[in-house]
Amino acid sequence: MATRPPTANGLGMTPGRAAEELNRIEALFPLLDDVPPIYRHWRTLVEREGVIGRQVHDARLAAVMLAHAVTHILTFNTDDFRRFPEIVPVDPREVDGAPRVQT
């Protein structure tokens, strides 16, 4: 997403700029461990919601969140997460006072 062109719903960053942004984000937020319960949550979501194709990646993120009791996700693709009632998608452009990502 970071290096995908803006015309394809991306941020248009160079790989170097994306790496810098990842370093900044990783310093601000804890990383969640890849734990065994994630698979159980993922399978439940995929079967319950009829998830297919590339959407299985969004289901995996939702499963990670469920396994770690995280309820909100900051995403430019809020519609992709509305199918999971346990997850609250938040568009970063709608957060008051949010810094804007520079490309």
Notes on the protein architecture:
It is built from 4 helices and 2 strands. Helix 2 (37-49) packs across helix 3. It has a two-stranded parallel ribbon. It has helices at residues 15-28, 37-49, 55-67, 78-81, and strands spanning 72-74, 88-90. The protein is 43% helix and 6% strand. With 103 residues, the chain is mainly alpha-helical. Strand 1, helix 4 and strand 2 form a beta-alpha-beta unit. The two termini are 12 Å apart. The relative contact order is 0.13.
Short description:
β1, α4 and β2 form a beta-alpha-beta unit.
The tally of strands reads: 2
Count, helices? 4
How confident overall, as mean pLDDT? Answer: 91
What is the ordering of alpha helices and beta strands?
HHHEHE
Report the C-alpha radius of gyration, rounded: 15 Å
Q: Which class do the helix and strand fractions yield? A: mainly alpha
Features:
103 residues; mainly alpha; two-stranded parallel sheet; 4 helices; 43% helix; globular
Topology record:
Blueprint: H1 15-28, H2 37-49, H3 55-67, E1 72-74, H4 78-81, E2 88-90
Parallel strand pairs: 1-2
